[in-house]
UniProtKB/TrEMBL annotation:
It comes from Diaphorina citri (Asian citrus psyllid). GO terms for molecular function: protein tyrosine phosphatase activity. It is an enzyme of class 3 (hydrolase). Residues 214-233 are annotated as: Disordered. Residues 1-210 form the FERM domain. One of its GO terms (biological process) is neuron differentiation. The keyword Hydrolase applies. Its EC number is 3.1.3.48. InterPro entries: Band_41_domain (IPR019749), FERM/acyl-CoA-bd_prot_sf (IPR014352), FERM_2 (IPR035963), FERM_central (IPR019748), FERM_domain (IPR000299), FERM_PH-like_C (IPR018980), PH-like_dom_sf (IPR011993), PTPN14/21_FERM_C (IPR041782). Keywords: Hydrolase, Protein phosphatase. Pfam families: FERM_C (PF09380), FERM_M (PF00373). This is protein-tyrosine-phosphatase.
């Protein structure tokens, strides 16, 4: 899995930055991260600078670029006639203005721009809540979001004491006495297990890196202090959930 971060301060080497750039490019092209036409043009221009270097009028033509995946598939497939050509022409103009920008810096600009888009760092799943109503559960780099028909709630990693998984059941245990445990049911066992493991890894990554960054920058209190200083979930899983914890240990 990919660990999403805010900003680029945690991306400290070229290979990590490059793989992050490629993953985000794929997320945008496949529609996992949404963007409008203007954003698509800006991102594609950074992509061209990162992959091709400086603009070359003889090489970077509409004909040359027609086979490169630069835009979200849904924009291209659902667009009217001529949209792809107009978008590509706009990207060529934007790319030509980036002459002199290093390819590594273009990757960084692409990453920073992608981080501002809806869906960045989030994966969503359809579940049923305790009343049997369909609900969207999303795991993000900052915590877990639950969106129902009439309301939504965001649980920050700092507020989550534990996450529980047994077969198709998934629960969020919080430090809030009024909302201590919230339970959901997934369509199948594998999906519930996948989200459980994702929460483990994303929470650990956040507590190890993101929370420390926030504390150092003075932007937020370090969540470690609210979780007993251990920075880890799953300190008190009962015996019915041992299978999930054992699988976690094998990761």
């Amino acid at each position: 899995m990919m660990y999403y971060v805010s900003g680029i301060s945690l991306i400290t080497d070229e290979m990590t930055r490059y793989h992050c750039f490629l993953q985000l490019k794929n997320d945008i092209i496949e529609g996992r991260i949404q963007c409008n036409l203007d954003d698509a043009v800006v991102l594609a221009s950074y992509c061209m600078q990162a992959e091709f270097g400086n603009y070359n009028s003889e090489r970077h033509t509409l004909e040359y670029l027609k086979d490169f995946a630069l835009f979200p598939k849904d924009l291209v497939e659902n667009g009217h006639n001529g949209l792809l050509e107009r978008l590509t022409d706009a990207v060529i103009q934007q790319h030509s203005a980036l002459v002199g920008l290093s390819q590594g810096t273009a990757e960084e600009y692409y990453i920073l721009a992608a981080q501002q888009l809806d869906g960045y760092g989030q994966e969503t799943f359809l579940v049923k809540d305790e009343h049997g109503l369909e609900t969207i559960l999303g795991v993000t780099l900052k915590g877990i979001i639950v969106s129902g028909t009439n309301s939504s709630k965001f649980y920050k990693w700092a507020e989550i004491a534990n996450v529980l998984n047994h077969k198709k059941n998934f629960g969020i245990e919080t430090s809030n006495a009024d909302d201590h445990i919230v339970n959901f049911v997934f369509p199948d066992v594998e999906s519930a297990k996948y989200v459980f493991r994702m929460c483990v890894h994303q929470h650990t990554f956040y507590m190890t890196y993101e929370a420390t960054e926030e504390d150092n920058e003075g932007e937020a209190q370090n969540p470690r202090s609210s979780s007993g200083g251990n920075g880890r979930l799953f300190q008190n899983i009962d015996t019915a959930l041992l299978s999930s914890r054992e699988e976690l240990d094998e990761v």
